[in-house]
Specification:
Layout: H1 3-16, H2 28-35, H3 39-52, E1 55-57, E2 63-65, H4 70-94, H5 97-109, H6 111-114, H7 121-139, H8 142-161, H9 166-184, H10 188-209
Helix pairs in contact: 1-3, 4-7, 4-8, 4-9, 4-10, 5-7, 5-9, 9-10
Amino acid sequence: MRASDRAYVALRDDIIEWRLAPGTVLAEVEQSARLGVSRTPLREALSRLTAEGLTAAAGGRGVVVTDISLEDIDELFELRGTLEGKAAALAAERGDRATFEQLQRELLEAPELVRGPNPALHDYYELVGRLDTAIDAAISNSYLAQAMRSLRVHLVRVRRLAADDAGRLTAAAAEHAAIAEAIAAGNPKLAEAATTIHLHRSLSHVKATHVPHQKEHHG
C-alpha cells in the first residue's frame, strides 16, 4: 500500500470512529510524525479526505476535521433514501435469490448477536455489511455502488453518534431481514418500501439519541 493510501486509511478511520474530534487541526508536521509518512503523501491523503467532506481547509490554520450537524444528518439520509431505495429495487430485479434468502435467515438470527452482557457488535455490523455488499454486487451499476460506498463513510460516522442499544439493533436486524426477504422474493416495490421504513426509523433513532450542534453558515 502506498504511503498516501496508508495515511488516508488511518486518518479516515480515526475520523469516522471519533478518535479525531470535529475541529481537530491536522497539522502536517504532527500527523506526518504520528503516521510515519512524509509530508507529500500526507497532503495527498488530506486532499482525499477534504474531497469526501471529512476534513476542510480552515484559513491559516490548515486542515481541520469537519463537524456533523442536524442539517448534515438530514441531508445524508435524504440522499441515502434515494440511493438505497433504488439499489434495493434493482437488487430485487437482478439479484441472486439464494444469496438474499441466506442473508435473511442470518439476519433473523442476528438479535442473538446484540443481546446479553457481551454483545458481538462487530459480528452484527459485519453481517449488515455483507448485505450492503450483496446489494452492491446485485445492482450491476458501478456508479450507483460507488456513490453508496462514498456515502457510507459518513453514515458510519453518524452511527457512532447514536447509542448502540440492543433494542434498536434488534429492530434494525428485523428491518434488514425484511429488505433481504423482499429482494429474495424479486419484489422491487416491496424492497424499496422496506428500505424506506428502515431509514426512517434509523434517522429517528439518531436524532433521539444525539443532537449535534447546528451547521454554521458562512456568508
